[in-house]
Amino acid sequence: MSRPLRVATYNLKGLHLDEDAAREVVRELAPDVLGVTEPPRGLTGRWRLRAFARAVGLRVVVGGGGARTTALLVRPEARVEQGRARRLPVRPGRVRRGFCTAVVDGVTVAVVHLGLDAVERKAHLARVLTPVPPGTSVLVGDLNEQPGRPAWTTLGGVLRDAAEVAAHASGAPPEPTYPATDPRWRIDVVFVGPDVEVLAARVPAGPAVERASDHRPLVVDLRVPEPGAAHGRMGA
């Protein structure tokens, strides 16, 4: 038995541009799971993220603290286990980064926001993949690099690029996500494990999308095993 699951990834630019437009975009996406990169931070960051989640019909399961530039939001009725904010090592002068993991209705989900330095991306991605087992797993986020580069190659060795799978089925190329006003680069991703079926993928457009952030979101429709069926479990 399997069931549908809608997953999206969205770089919210700290909600600094047009928060009302960002809310409109996410409501239209209607995701079951939303991986957020660049959530609001600072003294009021957690409060603003919770308020945003409520406004779009979701709840925050991981955000703030060690999650740093990532957060994980899910629909209110979802069953969440092992939600964790995981810190990543930082070198002087670099942005402090982390990532989120959780098991959402039996699906292992990770949210990642890799940095601008290629060496750092490689080191961080190795740590990110450790708690993401093959099987019923989904990794979303902002890789800060384009297809064919090392992070994509590493991920492609253990997971599948959902947008590429959908593009192969439809005959249309995967859509770029950055920048929002005239996207040319595909840096926001959804990767899935072998037990996950990809049904469709799209990158929304329109005035609200262009106002809300400097990225466009990526939304992917999946089919996943029912909770309790065999799936990869998250490690410590």
Question: How would you portray this structure in words?
Answer:
The protein is an alpha+beta fold. The chain has one domain (2-225): Deoxyribonuclease I, Chain A. It has helices at 19-29, 45-55, 118-129, 150-156, 162-170, 207-212, and strands at 2-11, 33-37, 59-63, 70-74, 80-87, 98-104, 107-113, 137-142, 160-161, 188-192, 197-202, 218-225. This is Endonuclease/exonuclease/phosphatase domain-containing protein. Residues 8-215 form the Endonuclease/exonuclease/phosphatase domain. GO terms for molecular function: catalytic activity.
Q: In the CATH scheme, what's the topology name? A: Deoxyribonuclease I, Chain A
End-to-end C-alpha gap? 28 Å
Q: Which sheet architecture does the biggest sheet show?
A: 6 strands, mixed
Query: In the CATH hierarchy, what is the superfamily?
Result: Endonuclease/exonuclease/phosphatase
**How many structural units, i.e. domains?**
1
Global shape: globular
Percent of residues in helices? 10-25%
Record field, number of beta strands: 12
CATH class: Alpha Beta
Continuous helix count: 6
Backbone CA Rg: 16 Å
Structural class: alpha+beta
Main sheet: which strands, in order across? 3-4-2-1-12-11
Pfam families: Exo_endo_phos
GO molecular function: catalytic activity
Domain Endonuclease/exonuclease/phosphatase: 8-215
Organism: Cellulomonas soli
